[in-house]
């Protein structure tokens, strides 16, 4: 067990290095000279001298790998430099100011996804082809074809404009999180209901379910204790990765609901060409992805006795 | 002799996209107390389906007609709860593939105790003690360790003995063994057969022994039922049927068996 | 295959919806009642009328005409994206499947990484660095989607490579290029079509989402996602503005999804 965890953690290091390199390389996709951009966003006329000065300031005239390692050293100290737009604000400051709001939104959505999709998925599988199952399947179908930003504005219109029971956006007012969290979770609910339903149905045909019936166990016990646990075992990887998807999915939702999180920060940075912030966002998502993968793998390993090393 | 299980005009149809296929057509037979009924037939002849139909274990795609009477209870008409109480406690079944019959995520003891708690209405602690005793009765070495093992850590033969032991501890009136020799390698077939002969002698149960292997059935059963394509082609007392087979198919099965044995003796010398 | 598909009512209906949408898009100039970009301050938020069948928006532009012209970026850019994705995926997949060895290993590792990384982040990364605009959105979409096709085509190539008639072709000395184009691709094509149809829905949603955020198709070009973005600004006063483009996306995407499902059932009957 311990051996596996150590091995798994060791893989993380090269992966992190790869992600950091990708995040660094991406900045080379910029069609313009970064120094020039840095000047333009601050309304300084990019004269030859000014550009040279800025290159010096940003360290752009050093060799490529030298720049990467310099950058990496700073990143390890959580120093991403300063924002191009607000020169007196650090990138890490911007991110850490907006991160809590995003995490709050993603966590609430994750709970909604889990507590809605598991029971519905189980009920759909148990009552396969019943009216309930058919209606849910229809809703899932619509859910996957509906743009989630449209769902978002429809929710705003219904609950904030028409019924006036919830705020339209921001995160200051009471209950402001309800609408964005619902809008964010709906798309993923359709995915996971389908996943859990299919996994349940697949497990129900397994021989161990038949033997459980032979042994005279109650239907409910077979479903909840045996089939559900086995289905979750096979869904856990997908469920775990949903954390990353939820955090990255906040980009759209945060913009609709004016939720002051990293997704909104990312979009406004794209418009403002604030490259260090975008770079930090990508790096952060990459690292989040690696760690979610790690945690999911370890949980999966821990819960499945078949994967344990011989004791 | 008292009949403990009676099957009258059983018919099973499988419905698939409005296409109905006949799987079992009009079979009748009965099982007498403390006797062993062997059901022989090639794979696909409907042996297993018959037993699943008796226990109400076929899913909704199967349409069942006829009657099944166990101790004056009409099983096909009884409600779900009643059938569930009979399953396990009154009629136990031993499956053909022990390796896949246990939930891979729980240790053996969990799966044994839940069975005992459900069927014998006892406490968790008593059930645990009973599980240990079951393994001891089956002459399994290190029973305490085996209880804590997960299914994938045990051999097929071991799991089968756990299954047999669990069935016996419930003291059912009928034990149905569905091809218990298929998952076992040739060397252990004799061992498994001895196990089942032992059950018949030691415990007061009736048994239905399903196999495609005529030799195995001949050794253990008192009465025999030969099935082909969902129909019964021959039934009667085992020794009598083997000596005077009336149907073409029975003769065919006997001859193949004989040819195989001859070949075997020829090779072994 | 086509015959079987014709018998499937759902597939037929969705196919008709998709094809007629495409035709309307192609002949937008002839069909649209008004110029989609003609603004008129006096005619803001006009009700349904003979002249404006679906009313007008906040600049007095005809919503129906904008909807019809909006088909173009939605369907044709998505199709273009899919086409490029498939071509790139095919080239990489065939290369990997044919060469095997180290090249294959390296390509597949890259593909694995591409497949597991959240696609939304990748799109944002590319658009964020290369700048706002539909061209970059398409490049980003291709960049994250090709890996799926590369993996699928690689495994098909390996699977078909060992089939008898291809071994025979090799034996009689047909060239590699000839084998690939004449024997391999037609076999793989059906699988690609199914996946591509299912992915069309995804691409349409993705492009419209980015246009909604203002990262894709730029104003004043008519595009459904961008129209919804404009509608969102007037949600309190004129909520009906957000209905037409929303339903248009919903219907088109679900048509592609349904068609993809039907195609899969037809091609792969064992999964029914």
UniProtKB/TrEMBL annotation, chain A:
Record organism: Anaerovirgula multivorans
Family matches, as NCBIfam families: nickel_nikB, Opp1B, Opp2B
UniProt xrefs under Gene3D superfamilies: MetI-like (1.10.3720.10)
Keyword flag Membrane: yes
Family membership: Belongs to the binding-protein-dependent transport system permease family. OppBC subfamily.
Domain ABC transmembrane type-1: 99-300
Record localization: Cell membrane
Membrane topology (UniProt): Multi-pass membrane protein
GO cellular component: plasma membrane
Gene Ontology molecular function: nickel cation transmembrane transporter activity
This protein's UniProt keywords: Cell membrane, Ion transport, Membrane, Nickel, Nickel transport, Transmembrane, Transmembrane helix, Transport
PROSITE patterns, per database record: ABC_TM1
Protein name: Nickel import system permease protein NikB
Pfam name, any one: BPD_transp_1
Bilayer-spanning residue ranges: 9-30, 105-126, 138-160, 175-195, 277-296
Predominant subcellular localization, coarse grouping: membrane
Subunit structure as annotated in this protein's UniProt entry: The complex is composed of two ATP-binding proteins (NikD and NikE), two transmembrane proteins (NikB and NikC) and a solute-binding protein (NikA).
TrEMBL record, chain B:
Source organism of the structure: Anaerovirgula multivorans
Domain of life per record: Bacteria
Protein name as annotated: Nickel transport system ATP-binding protein
Keywords: ATP-binding, Cell membrane, Membrane, Nucleotide-binding, Transport
Lineage, top ranks: Bacteria, Bacillati, Bacillota, Clostridia, Peptostreptococcales
Domain ABC transporter: 5-254
Keyword ATP-binding found: yes
Entry keyword annotation includes Cell membrane: yes
Bilayer disposition of the protein: Peripheral membrane protein
From TrEMBL, chain C:
Cellular location(s): Cell membrane
Keyword Transmembrane helix: yes
GO cellular component terms listed in the entry, alphabetical order: plasma membrane
Stored InterPro entries: BP-dependent_transpt_permease, MetI-like, MetI-like_sf, OppC_N, Staphylopine_ABC_permease
Alphabetical list of Pfam families matching this protein: BPD_transp_1, OppC_N
Chain ranges of the ABC transmembrane type-1 domain: 71-260
Keyword Membrane: yes
Keywords, sorted A to Z: Cell membrane, Membrane, Transmembrane, Transmembrane helix, Transport
SUPFAM superfamilies: MetI-like
Principal location class: membrane
Spans through the membrane: 75-98, 133-150, 192-217, 242-260
Alphabetical GO biological process terms: transmembrane transport
Membrane topology reported for the UniProt record: Multi-pass membrane protein
Domain of life: Bacteria
Family membership noted in the UniProt record: Belongs to the binding-protein-dependent transport system permease family.
Name by which UniProt lists this protein: Nickel transport system permease protein
Origin species: Anaerovirgula multivorans
Lineage: Bacteria, Bacillati, Bacillota, Clostridia, Peptostreptococcales
